[in-house]
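new request in #modeling-help
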Amino acid sequence: MEEKRLFTVSSNPLVRTDRDTTRIMLDVIIALVPALAVGVYQFGVKVLLLLAVSVFSCVFFEWGYRKLMKKSRSVGDLSAVVTGFLLTCVLPSDATWWMCVIGAFFAIVVVKQLYGGIGKNFLNPALAGRAFLTAAYAAFMTSWAIPTTLGATVVDASTMATPLSYLKAGTAMPEYFNYGSLFLGGIPGSMGEVSSLAILVGAAYLLWRKVITWRIPTAFIGTVAVLCLIFGGEGYGRLDWTVYNLLSGGLLLGAFFMATDYSTSPVTLKGQLIFGAGCGALTVLIRYFGSYPEGVSYAILIMNCCAWAVDRVTRPRQFGVSAEDVKAAKSAKKEAKKKAKEAASA
Amino acid sequence: MNLKQQFKEGLITNNPVLVQRIGMCSTMAITTSLFNGIGMGLSVLIILTCCNVAISALRKAIPNDIRLAIFVVVIAGFVTIVDLLLQAFIPALSASLGVFIPLIVVNCIIIGRAEAFCQHEPIGPSFFDGIFQGFGYTVVLVLMCLIRELLGSGTFGTGIFEIVDGALRVSFDGSAAGIRIFPEQFGATILIMPFGGFLTLASLLAAMQYALRKSAEKKEAAERAAKVEVVKEAANNA
Amino acid sequence: MTATKKAPNQIIRLALILFVVSAITSGVLGLVNYFTKDIIAEREREKTAAAYQAVLPYDGEYETVAFDEDAWETVNAISRAGDEGWVVELTFSGAQSSITAAFGVSAPDYSITGASVIDHAETSGLGAKITEPEFTDSFIGQTEGMAVTKDGGTVDSITAATISSRAMANAANTAIAAVKALG
């Protein structure tokens, strides 16, 4: 029998969906699985161990802090688990388990919970954790283990240079770094960033699930591509330079999984484009002129700090207010200020 | 004001760095080794005490309108004297603290105490105020140094203590390498860097606030309990 | 408005008091300076002499030689140590401060015989490690074209203090070049 009710009368919220924070976070975790799977394949079971330590410590610190401060429980929303996953993704496999614990502490307690917990932090916790560890343990954080697929090629060493360091030095890449190996993940690097393919698969899932939108990643990656094409690099063809820059380092991981973090990126549509472009420009700037070969994490952290300003500038006009009205209001405000100043000086 | 109370104020309840929150710049900048911390702390203590006494002695002669100018002249004078003496007799400390000794001129603790205390108080209390406030500052510096040195480079007492052939050696010229607690590679370098200064000071401030609030709450509770007791007694008597 | 204006004699009184306080302070400072000036200068000389001896041991007098000061801006002084070689003193910018360092350059093959930092204000615990023998000893025997290990060279770069280490390596190159330019 067909129900003939046209309207359901109820108080708000009027739209109901099964998509809550927990579901979104679960989607992000699912999307990160391919990238980390490549990491496990390339760097061994150690990756799983570090992942377990990171996730466990993130969840523990989240639970512990909320408990200690007598705040509501928030472990159930899985956001701490996501931070643990992301933290593992941006650490090199030479990181040690205690570094994961320290990084998790900094990410969850200092960056996230001290500012009020999920949605209130202004920096991406995982990236801030990475930045802290980089500054604290530079030696561990710049040591890149040889991936399994290159085990036969590079024999007389335990660590090797990443494609980015070749780009930075302007020297030609060895043969085993080519478009194919960069795309599939046959390169050294952080545990979750080596395979562009795996990251793109995860990103496609997130886009399909509408967890992220195209704006920030497109603006981010697009800006890097355009700037690299325009300026080129020493010792490389323009196209080579651009493709290598896009496929190496944490660019794709950062663009799809970090820069799109809800609480640390702008909410306005125009703002998201500006945010992405800013991340891209800063990445290129750091890669060209910085003392570190990689700049994605710092670029995103810097833009995180600017997100509020971007939001303010790009705030859309109120419905029913024309551009002229806004202008008039602005000039009136200026006039009033001027008058107040004159009155004060008189 | 008695000595005990002044001592408690300088060290805890009115600690220059952790409660008055002045002089934080140098606190964060130089606390990378115990030698620096103690050297800076004692320099400030000496300068502060001298300035306090001088300003307190002059307090009746200083016209209100130009008091700040006179404070600055007096402070700059003492700072330069200490700077010259350090250069001459403890060159290692002078080299290690570098520009931060001349910068004591603009250390808010000294001008702050002159403004808040010495221009109203006689020489005696001003002298002890200088000693105790300077001591409070030194204690915070030493705490910061211990934390940052241990976590940042895994050593204890760089510049002062050293273990040579199994025996403890104490030096006052800053040449000692420090006692290694754990291998250097485990030290979080960032704590030695300026960021670590902010982080450590913030943690200490938070801990201090927590402790002060807890003790205030306790006091209040005790007072309330005492009051209730009095009321109860009155009721019983009635 | 008139309330804040002081009578002329009031202003003179204030100026006088300020003058007296300043005069006394300057007097005391002058006195302290008079007594410490020689000691400080002696300390500086000792420090420089020790640095010179450390980078290029020599029994005789170090003899100052003239060089083209416009071409070598960072070079403070070049001293000749007989037939042994030269000591070059330079002041250049490190990561946070100016570094003054001396390098010994041997006469026959223009290689570095030693390096010593005379004065600096780099971050203690990081850049300040340029003063440690572990770092300065890595210069010994090097010739022109030095670079730190992080840049693919042979001079040890100090972890987390690449800029300070790099500045030292560049200065060592300058020292050799300046000596070569003497002819």
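bot summary: Residues 194-237 of chain B form the longest helix (44 residues).
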